[in-house]
Amino acid sequence: MIIRARFLMTALLLACAATSQSGCFWIMAQGPNLGPLAFPVPVPVGMQKSKEDKFWNYERYERAPVLGPIPAGGPCEAIDEPSDDEVMRALEKARPVQGNWPFLYEIQRNHVRITKVKIADYIDPPRHYPLAGPAQHHHAQYKCTIYYQEVKRIGWPVPHTLVDEDTQEVVYIDHNHLHMVGDVDTGSDANF
Length: 192
Fold this sequence. Notes:
It is built from three helices and five strands. Strands 1, 2, 3, 4 and 5 form a five-stranded mixed β-sheet that branches. β3 and β4 form a beta hairpin.
């Protein structure tokens, strides 16, 4: 009986020492802590991917920049066309492939080829925009045609594969931004 009690006390002492030294024990933590909310909570992969994609689109493609003024006699054409990543993300938003059921229903896009054609490029007259000041709105619209091979694998009730060799989708992408107008103070101290 004494040996058993001694063993239990030693095990309890070692358990307390191990948990207090691991850095994850919230009761013995010094300073501010989150209490029981400090434990990690599993997040589904689909939810995490959708949040990452939403942030990626916001960071790269959903904000309209305010550029410097257009120089007199300079080019007034939009310089950048949509990237392949932007086109594929727009296609994914229109016709999603992700979220398939593995081994039950899967879709793949193979041999992708993208053509981009500028269909409009024009600048609005100057006007006052809140938080930006006097500016001109520059519109650039592109028609992007995506050619690909679509493979659908269906695993239930009868496993089979459907291959569409000549699939094409059209996505329209707008690249809009503002150009400052008038005597613009860009913040630089260069005097010419």
